[in-house]
């Protein structure tokens, strides 16, 4: 039986091996913060971290993930919404409908983990998630704020 | 504990927590075992009135009938209620009443429809009255307890005091007594200049849960014993299911049933959605595609082109004699523009969960109109509306797709009806969502204008040919066959969407041509094409007259001060007229829609390879009253993403009767790398209430198209821009 390490907990998974990781996370593990948007790795709503890197889970078969690999979902990014990206997002009221935001936040936090002080051009080219409400300008400002420490007060 | 049991326990815990958040104090009508527990906590606090519940811990619950889909209406409607209520804003939370409860209470919450940018503007008055009435009752309750006249009491941030005796109490302490007091017959609303909560850029109430994955969308719902469904409707609109071979997939993992849904669709029900979809993809289905299978983009275009020259047309705006004025003009300008079908492409695909039994049907779904969803559920369930209910869930985007028709609700109820008592969650695939939308109507527009020898505009004929939304969706709302919605932004007057120009001789008419592709209300609706047509053509006329496009417009706008106000504001902020580098250009556009006035200036460049870059947008909006300026800015910024995605990329084409584009790889949308800087001017002039979710969409495309012309000398008249060669000749 395959096992997955999700948010620090190792779980047994009983599922067809070609099931995308997204649906294992949502339907077997029951963590629904990671979203289905397109199923073809285009929109990024399903973004999770695997060993710290942003990965689109909707097109990744669960069989391609090893037990040793650490999967982090939006629910596991911080214990209480206190990751610098989450704090910056709160300060700037980034989300509108919010559906794409878990993926957006996972993409942004992975970017900052690898590049703590990205340039605007780097943010623009690295964050390729789709938001249909059009929060991009606040996403851009949010990544910059998080990179500066993200301690600014809300409002 | 088996995996199944643990999943069930998890879902039950989640569901209790979520139902408190989603349905709040009104609870869930559906009789599942834990229903009473979910309801009891909040139900113990009586409401002060339909809009306000104040709990003993001082939490102020404001009920909102309109739907939150990202536009900020929960916060934007809570603010004016809290303003009149004089409560502590930091204690405010919101909840949705259900349309079934509203029906049972003589529609006490009014209209649930959340479209046409109407959320705030159409419900603010009765909601403010609800807040003011609740305040009056709460103060009266305290005054009664103290045996003093209410007029001697004061209230601030939910604390009631009687200065003469030094006593004070709080809303939470008197709420129950207040609930028994006769509501006042009349209330005095505050003057907007005295607002302290409304009109302020307070943070949204619904942000925190959207940052942690806790926010529940319809797709995330889990009920005990729930099964999942995936569906495929005949890809040709109007076609039917001929046959399918259920046996081929019945043995696949998790599959519980294969269900025919109506005449045209088939669904697979399984324990998980992924297994349902996998089996559905493997299910052999034969379609009876019908005569529409012969239709293509080319045949539709031919139908629309014919309408451009047709004799018969519905008149939207007529003044003077446009034909004669143009015939006698010194210079004639003519152009044909076009707007394609577009999918809303909400981030969250269509979905709903339903439980049906022979005496009750409950639906959980993201909807822009709870009452319409209830009507659809009732009809599909074969049960009276009072035996059904719809529990609204936050929408992962709406943009008009989730309001007028609830095709997915009808489907899920039809499936649930086949499995009585079992909760069924239906989720569309993205591909299903792309090919079974309710599309932005397709139109072509021929414009002919006449200029006199001094370059003055003497007449315009604007002929729109194409699809009517009302004819497709709400034919009962046509007026003697005419669709008034077609003329949004072009009307001779009115508070909703009046044209901003005084043209001596004008005729704007519509040759209705309805292809088989179903139309829908699409964020901005017909102001989108109409602003492209009118504002691009104004630009063409200005150039033909040898005049600056801004000055040319201004001469026609003397009688339209609010239109002119936003136009001047963007021109000034953008530095209209200042020199730009080679290959750069500025474009301007304005329109009135949904009761608000909007204008934009776009700055673009086009390089030698024809690549477009949008550098800067300056946008102004005058919505009359601005309830939350920072959220208006968010809506305006987002409008440029939605509007420019449409202008640059948005196109659903038709081949063999079906929509060709299936997903975001063939239906691209704007991403962060292309997002221009947007500077927003919120300039409420007071005295009226306009919407903000939609009006700005319409100016995005024409501002950019006019800027492209300024940069390249090339006029793009058919969107999307991706199909045009922008290399300078």
Automatic annotation (TrEMBL), chain A:
Which InterPro entries does the entry link to? 2Fe-2S-bd, 2Fe-2S-bd_dom_sf, 2Fe-2S_ferredoxin-like_sf, 2Fe-2S_ferredoxin-type, 2Fe2S_fd_BS, Beta-grasp_dom_sf, Diverse_Oxidoreductases
UniProt keyword annotation of Plastid present? no
Q: Which domain of life is it from?
A: Bacteria
Coiled coil ranges? none
Q: Name one Pfam family in it.
A: Fer2
Boundaries of every 2Fe-2S ferredoxin-type domain copy: 1-77
One GO molecular function term of this record is: 2 iron, 2 sulfur cluster binding
Q: Which CDD domains match?
A: fer2
List UniProt keywords, sorted A-Z: 2Fe-2S, Iron, Iron-sulfur, Metal-binding, Oxidoreductase
Q: PANTHER family given for it? A: BLR6218 PROTEIN, OXIDOREDUCTASE WITH IRON-SULFUR SUBUNIT
Supply the name of the protein: (2Fe-2S)-binding protein
Q: Which organism is it from?
A: Enterovirga aerilata
What are the top taxonomic ranks of the organism?
Bacteria, Pseudomonadati, Pseudomonadota, Alphaproteobacteria, Hyphomicrobiales
UniProtKB/TrEMBL annotation, chain B:
Please give the organism: Enterovirga aerilata
Q: Name one GO molecular function term.
A: oxidoreductase activity
Pfam families per UniProt:
MoCoBD_1, MoCoBD_2
Q: What is this protein called?
A: Xanthine dehydrogenase family protein molybdopterin-binding subunit
Extract the InterPro entries matched here. Ald_Oxase/Xan_DH_a/b, AldOxase/xan_DH_MoCoBD1, AldOxase/xan_DH_MoCoBD2, AldOxase/xan_DH_Mopterin-bd_sf, N-heterocyclic_Hydroxylase, OxRdtase_Mopterin-bd_su_IorB, TAT_signal, TAT_signal_bac_arc
Q: Which domain of life is it from?
A: Bacteria
Q: Which residues belong to any copy of the Aldehyde oxidase/xanthine dehydrogenase a/b hammerhead domain?
A: 212-291
């Amino acid at each position: 039986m395959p096992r997955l390490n999700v948010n620090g907990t190792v779980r047994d998974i009983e599922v067809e091996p070609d099931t995308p990781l997204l649906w294992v996370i949502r339907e077997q593990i029951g963590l629904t913060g990671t979203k289905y948007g397109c199923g073809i790795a285009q929109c990024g709503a399903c973004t999770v971290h695997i060993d710290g890197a942003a990965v689109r889970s909707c097109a990744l078969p669960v069989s391609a993930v090893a037990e040793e690999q650490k999967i982090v979902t939006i629910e596991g990014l911080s214990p209480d919404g206190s990751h610098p990206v989450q704090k910056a997002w709160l300060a700037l009221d980034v989300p509108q409908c919010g559906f794409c935001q878990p993926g957006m936040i996972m993409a942004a936090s992975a970017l900052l983990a690898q590049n703590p002080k990205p340039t605007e051009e780097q943010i623009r080219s690295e964050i390729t998630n789709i938001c249909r409400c059009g929060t991009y300008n606040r996403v851009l400002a949010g990544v910059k704020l998080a990179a500066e420490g993200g301690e600014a007060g809300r409002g | 504990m088996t995996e199944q049991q643990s999943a069930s326990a998890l879902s039950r815990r989640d569901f209790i927590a979520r139902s408190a958040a989603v349905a709040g104090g009104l609870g869930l009508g559906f009789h599942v075992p834990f229903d009473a527990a979910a309801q009891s906590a909040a139900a113990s606090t009586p409401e002060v009135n339909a809009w306000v519940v104040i709990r003993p811990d001082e939490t102020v619950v404001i009920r909102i009938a309109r739907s939150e889909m990202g536009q900020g209406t929960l916060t934007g409607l809570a603010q004016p209620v809290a303003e009149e209520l004089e409560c502590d804003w930091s204690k405010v939370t919101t909840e949705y009443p259900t349309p079934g409860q509203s029906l049972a209470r003589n529609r006490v919450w009014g209209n649930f429809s959340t479209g046409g940018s109407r959320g705030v503007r159409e419900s603010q008055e009765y909601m403010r009255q609800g807040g003011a009435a609740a305040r009056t009752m709460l103060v009266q309750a305290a005054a009664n307890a103290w045996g003093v006249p209410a007029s001697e009491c004061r209230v601030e941030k939910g604390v009631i005091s009687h200065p003469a005796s030094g006593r004070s109490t709080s809303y939470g302490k008197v709420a129950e007594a207040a609930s028994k007091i006769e509501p006042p017959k009349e209330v005095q609303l505050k003057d907007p200049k005295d607002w302290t909560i409304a009109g302020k850029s307070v943070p949204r109430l619904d942000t925190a849960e959207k940052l942690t994955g806790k926010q529940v969308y319809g797709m995330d719902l889990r009920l005990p014993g729930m099964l999942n469904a995936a569906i495929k409707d005949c890809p040709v609109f109007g076609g039917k299911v001929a046959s399918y071979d259920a046996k081929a997939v019945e043995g696949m993992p998790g599959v519980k049933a294969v269900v025919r849904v109506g005449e045209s669709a088939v669904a697979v029900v399984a324990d998980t959605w992924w297994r349902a979809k996998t089996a559905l993809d493997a299910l052999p289905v034969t379609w009876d595609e019908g005569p529409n299978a012969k239709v293509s983009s080319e045949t539709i275009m031919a139908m629309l082109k014919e309408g451009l020259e047709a004799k018969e047309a519905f008149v939207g705006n007529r003044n003077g004699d446009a034909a004669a004025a143009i015939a006698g003009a010194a210079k004639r300008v003519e152009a044909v523009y076009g707007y394609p079908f577009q999918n809303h492409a909400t981030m969250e695909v269509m979905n709903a969960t339903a439980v049906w039994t022979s005496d009750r049907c409950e639906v959980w779904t993201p909807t822009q109109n709870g009452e319409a969803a209830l009507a659809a559920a009732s009809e599909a369930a074969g049960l009276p509306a009072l035996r059904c209910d719809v529990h609204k869930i936050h929408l992962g985007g709406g943009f008009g797709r989730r309001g007028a028709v609830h095709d997915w609700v009808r489907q899920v109820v039809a499936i649930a009806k086949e499995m009585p008592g079992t909760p069924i969650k239906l989720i569309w695939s993205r591909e299903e969502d792309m090919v079974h939308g309710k599309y932005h109507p397709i139109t072509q527009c021929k414009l002919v204008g006449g200029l006199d020898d001094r370059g003055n505009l003497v007449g315009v004929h604007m002929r729109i040919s194409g699809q009517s939304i009302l004819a497709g969706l709400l034919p009962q709302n046509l007026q003697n066959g005419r669709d008034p919605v077609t003329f949004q932004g072009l009307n001779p007057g009115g508070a909703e969407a009046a044209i901003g120009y005084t043209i001596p001789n004008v005729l704007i008419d519509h040759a209705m041509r309805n292809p088989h592709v179903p139309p829908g209300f699409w964020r901005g609706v017909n102001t989108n094409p109409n602003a492209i047509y009118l504002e691009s053509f104004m630009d063409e006329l200005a150039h033909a007259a040898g005049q600056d496009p801004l000055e040319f417009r201004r001469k026609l706008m003397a009688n339209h001060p609010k239109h002119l106000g936003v136009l001047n504001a963007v021109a000034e902020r953008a530095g209209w007229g200042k020199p730009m580098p080679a290959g750069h250009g500025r474009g301007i556009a304005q329109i009135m829609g949904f009761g608000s006035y909007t204008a934009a200036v776009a700055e673009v460049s086009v390089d030698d390879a024809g690549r477009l870059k949008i550098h800067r947008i300056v946008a102004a909006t005058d919505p009359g009253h601005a309830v939350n300026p920072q959220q208006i800015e968010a809506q305006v910024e987002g409008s440029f993403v939605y509007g420019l995605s449409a202008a640059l990329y948005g196109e659903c084409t038709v081949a063999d009767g079906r929509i060709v584009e299936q997903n975001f790889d063939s239906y691209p949308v704007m991403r962060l790398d292309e997002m221009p800087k947007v500077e927003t001017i919120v300039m409420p002039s007071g005295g009226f209430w306009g919407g903000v979710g939609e009006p700005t969409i319409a100016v995005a495309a024409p501002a950019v198209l006019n800027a492209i012309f300024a940069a390249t000398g090339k006029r793009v008249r058919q969107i999307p821009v991706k199909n045009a060669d922008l290399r300078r000749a």
